[in-house]
Each structure stands twice: as C-alpha cells, then as structure tokens.
Amino acid sequence: MSPVVKRKGERFTLPSKYLLFLLTVLCTALMLVTFGTDVFNRPLNVVVGYVIVPFQQGIEKVGGWLSNRSEELVQIRTLLDENARLKAQVAALVEENTLLQQDKYELNKLRELFELDGQYAEYNKVGARIIGRDSGNWYSSFLIDKGEEDGLTVDMNVIAEGGLVGRITSVGPNWARVTSIISDNVHVSAMTLSTEDNMTVTGDLRLMAGGCITFSQLVDGQNMVREGDKVVTSNISDKYLPNILIGYISTINKDANNLTKSGEIIPAVDFEHLGEVLIITDMKQSTVE
Amino acid sequence: MLRKIVVTVFIIVCFVFQCSVFDSLALGGIIPNLMIILTSSFGFMRGEQEGLLIGFFCGLLNDIFFGGFLGFYALLLMYIGYLNGKFSRIFYPEDIKLPLALIIVSDMSYGIICYILTFMLRSRFDFPYYFLRIILPEALYTIVVTLFLYPVILKANEKLEGHERKRAQKFV
Questions:
Q1: How many residue pairs from chains A and B have C-beta atoms closer than 8 A?
Q2: Element (H, E) at A126
Q3: DSSP code at position B135
Q4: CB within 8 A of A115, min separation 6: which ones?
Q5: CATH number at residue B122
Q6: pTM
Q7: Fold annotation for A124-289
Q8: Which of A192, A270, B29, B51 is least enclosed by beta carbons within 10 angstroms?
Q9: Set of chain B residues whose Cβ sits within 8 Å of the Cβ of A185
Q10: DSSP helix, strand, coil percent of chain A (3-state; round to 5)
C-alpha cells in the first residue's frame, strides 16, 4: 500500500521524504519569485513584526539597562581619577571658552554672509533605536524599531554620528532592516570631497574586524587625492543622497592597470558601538524629480 | 499541541537571543548559531520530520529578517534538520558525544555552504581566511553554548514525551 494513502481512523501523516521534497520545491519557488520581486515580503514582514519584534524591543531595553549598570560599576574607580583631572581641565576650558565665544560671533556673521547651512540640516530626519543585529557572521545588517507606520520605506539613507551607516533594505509595520556599508555585498558610489573624483566603496568581511572598508575604481589623473581625504557619497548614486560623509582615506594603492587606484577607508561611524541611528526620510529619487 | 507551542517558544526565544543578547556576548565579533543547535537537536531527538520542519521555520525567520531573498536559509536548515534526523535511530539521551559531534559537523557544513554560495560565487576566494576567521570560531562558540542549551532542550523534550505518553494511555 502506498505510504501516502490515508487509512480510516488513522491520522493523516506524510512521510518525511515527501515533506522534504515538497518543502524543497516550495523553497526553490520562493527563492526564484523573491529574487526579483517582493510579493511575499509584505505579509511575512507584518506577521513577524507583531510576533518577534516586541520581544526584541523588550530584550534590547533590558540588555541596555544591564550593560549600563555593569559599565557603571567598572567605571566608578576610573571616574574618581578622572573627576580630579577634569576639574583642573574645566578651569582651563572656561578661559578658552570665553575666547571661543568671541570667535563664534565672528563665525556666525561670516556664515550668514556665505549663506552656509548646517551640514545635513536640509534633510528631514527620524531617530530610531537598534533592536537586533544580523544573526549570522557573514554580513552586517541590523534591525531598528521604526517601520512603515513611522513613514519609512526601502532605500532611505541611514546616518549616525554625522556619517553614513547604510540604507534600509526591508520594512515591516514596526521594524526595518538596515544594511550597513561595511557589509560584504554592499557597494556605494562615492567621491572625494576635495577633488570630486568618483570611486566605488565596497564592504569587505576581511577588513570588517579592523573597522575598514575598501574603495576601488578611483580615477585620479592629477594625483591629487591624498591619504586623509574626506570621502562622501557621490552625486551619481541612485540610492544614496549626495554629500553624506562616508569616511577618510587611510591607504591608496595604484592598481595593476596603472589607470585606477584602490585602497582602504576608515568609516566616520563606529559600527561596533551603534545604539541609535538617524534615518533621512528624503529619498534620492524624489529629491531629484 | 503542547509540543507545537513549546517548540514555537523555543524558536522565538533562540532567534531573539541570537540577534540581541549574543550580540553583546560576541567573542571577536563572532556570534554562535543557536538555530543550528535547535534544528539539529530536535532532528536527532525526534526524527527527520520534526527536524526538517523546525529547520524550515528557523531558516524562514532568518530569511525574513536578514536574507536578501526568501528560502535560502530555510532550505539549508531544513536539509540539516533532515540529515540530523537520520541519526535519531542511534541517539540515546545519556550520550552527549553524538549530539556534540552532530552539532559541530552541522554548523561547519552550514558555514562552508554559506561561504560557497554567497561568497565564493562573488569571487571571494580566500577560503583559509574565512574558514579560520569565521567558520571555525563560530563552530567552537556554538559548541560552548550547546553545553548549556542542549540540556535544557533535552529536559524539555523528555517532559513533553512524558506528557504525550500519559495522554496516550488515557485514551486506551
């Protein structure tokens, strides 16, 4: 008798061989369908948003509280030393401050003359808290506690500490996934701030532990790009807004073809110790149109 | 029914722990793989069917949150659960060597397959580096965590099996 046939009075069971085969077909179909489109992402993102994300938010709060307490205990002794040192420093700084105040008036006046705006003041931003990190060791992405209900959509840029963190690659009702620029499969079109030479910035797992990312395809005909130069997102990227700081060039090497250069960049953001991030709610596509 | 609820709770708790708590306990940037522990232990404790189903759902969860597209981790973990289920015939609860060996082999093959399919195909050929820096540390850390997590899973499973036996007797 076939093993799939249901007998009377017996619960229907599918042999695991068949189940494996069925689910394999299902997974393959899912992969093929979701590779190009995201039809299933919406309902699934909504479901997990209400089942998993509340737990993550709770755990993150508890974890943050605990790590703060443990840090406090460790720091008490160093704080006492530091306190004495800082008191001396305060006296010196007060003096310096008065001098700087005078400079500030001058700066403000000059700024008005130049009509310079704050660095990213023209973009609308939303703050969010990180509630979870990538569960594997291969890529670098994290989850934040805001989503569609807060007006976020895929491809919005994420910054922290004045530098580019990454962009949103998936959203649910109350969560979103941010893929960071140090992730191995991410490429960002960038340029040097001083000479406006374009390059491609790529994450690399081998450099991730050292906190570096690589750049390549830098055409620098005049040999003007130096180590320490600022690298910002370029005007030609279709996902990233222009002129967001990525980091500083730490090494430059000439490629074997003698035309382009590549090297390493130290990101402006400390990806190890991110707690809160800012999401720019302006999109590149909509600002251009 | 009770079993389904308990297993669901196990999956959710392990997943949430893996991407929040263990991030602060990361050693050298490496976090252990609780999903592998869950999938393979239920595989060799309960057989192929439960192993592959639990693997499928663990992987699907991973896909939804962190995968570029759906189905990749689900497929991978499903096969790991199924293959671990093949060993349920020689599994005894008193023996810790077989579970440890199975989990370490599962995690290493998981790492190697991840490397081949998502890194080597993007022409990242430095296998010794990725093996020594990512795959091996992850497997070792996973084994350390297994020593604490596995007894909990085993105990829960024994309780569930006891409960199921009692219910089955009631109906006779």
A1: 135
A2: strand A125-133
A3: I
A4: none
A5: 1.10.1760
A6: 0.81
A7: Thrombin, subunit H (2.40.10)
A8: A270
A9: 68, 118, 122
A10: 40, 25, 35
